[in-house]
Amino acid sequence: REKTREKTREKILSLIKNHPSITTEELAQEAGVSVKGVEWQLKKLKDDHIIARVGPDKGGHWEVQKE
What we know:
Helix content is 57%, strand content 12%. The protein has three helices and two strands; from the N terminus they run H-H-H-E-E. The mean pLDDT is 93. Helix 1 (2-18) packs across helix 3 (35-47) and helix 2 crosses helix 3 (35-47). Strands 1-2 form a two-stranded antiparallel ribbon. By secondary structure, the protein is mostly helical.
């Protein structure tokens, strides 16, 4: 279970790097997890200061702060 979570996190980071304006729905589809799962991962990544949201939910984008 922990390995799956790690893989999902890496996949989300990679997707964000390649498509900073990707939506939560698109991330869920690409990573093969639920929207809730993506939201949980994004919250953790933000809490760990790995990613940051720049701009509004609609029309904003993600920024990877550190690997």
